[in-house]
Design goal:
Layout (H helix, E strand, L loop, with lengths): L4 E3 L5 E3 L14 E3 L5 E3 H9 L18 E2 L1 H13 L17 H12 L5 H17 L1 H8 L3 H9 L8 H10 L6 H8 L2 H10 L5 H16 L4 H8 L4 H9 L6 H15 L5 H6 L2 H8 L5 H15 L2 H8 L4 H8 L5 H17 L1 H9 L2 H9 L5 H14 L23
Antiparallel strand pairs: 1-2, 3-4, 3-5
Amino acid sequence: MPGSLEPLDISVQIPYHFRCPISLELMRDPVTVSTGQTYDRSSIESWVATGNTTCPVTRAPLTDFTLIPNHTLRRLIQDWCVANRSFGVERIPTPKQPAEPALVRSLLNQAASVSNPHHTRLAALRRLRGLARDSDKNRSLISSYNVREILVNLLFADTASNSDLNNESLALLVMFPLKEPECVSIASEPDRIAYLSKLLFHSSIEVRVNSAALIEMVVAGTRSSDLRAQISSVEEIFEGVIEILRTPLSHPRALKIGIKALFALCLVKQTRHKAVAAGAAETLIDRLADFDKCDAERALATIELLCRVQDGCAAFAGHALTVPLLVKTILKISDRATEYAAGALLALCSASEQSQGEAVCAGILTQLLLLVQSDCTDRAKRKAQMLLKLLRDSWPEDSVGNSDDFVCSEVVPF
């Protein structure tokens, strides 16, 4: 290896000892292993994770896998970055060190012990949440200490008071995926679901969103259809989730969690009318343009689900923007979004001649013809073919829809 400098595209040279021996890139978090060699933390962690037990440079066995931060070298690298910022080099941020297992155990014990003062337990939970936010590695470490069981017990220990301890436990709990037995333990106790439903109307938007996040996790993680129906039938649960979807765009997490929770609840067919009664149709159409790609897919899937019930179909048909927006969505977001939009339009046009006319006026003919010739999913094409057949009598006389050259007779049933 060269011992001095190596040119870069930005006309600046990185000192050799600032480069990680594994990745050969500028080190952002240099750490020293038991052999005395220094590597970038992410590189040496990946090396060890693949089963290697030797030092990459010396090939000597690693007597232990402790990684000691090399603060001196990191500061030298940061100083070099500052000195070369005129060449476009950005200063690397000071990395946050991974949580120590002993610290995590201590914090969990402090939070779980009922003999500790309230402020001590609250401070421990807040410190744990800060560590969990720092990195996936910290979350994995915290998760390994049975944190879910501890947090569930804390969250539901005293639901009458709704103290900061409950809210902080909830905020930390939603950072860890729940296993099915944990979801069932929450779903099978009506008092717990009623409490989460109550939190959907909390004065703090963070508490409301965290409650919706836990509800979504529990519904999605429970296989029992009876338990899912029991959750979705809780009084005002749809009202709370839909109100979260109406939160201003200054809270983007509310929009993301809200649509995830609403979709999970609407998978239960027998309670979809509750979503409609709570104003889901108007809210989904009004917020459709605000979702990112993944959430727009979920929103369109929810719209299609609600269009399968009579009340939902009528509610969407009654909104002036529903049909034009769905037509516009075809082939614009993703294959899945196109499929859901086509399915919703098929339900609407099958139930209402007015929706048929609105679809034709919105230019659905062109969209459907492009769809059946695209690489979209087979289900989307089947829905498009069924729509074309349904709407054929509604095309203007001078449109291709009434041409002898256009045939849409091969309709594959669902």
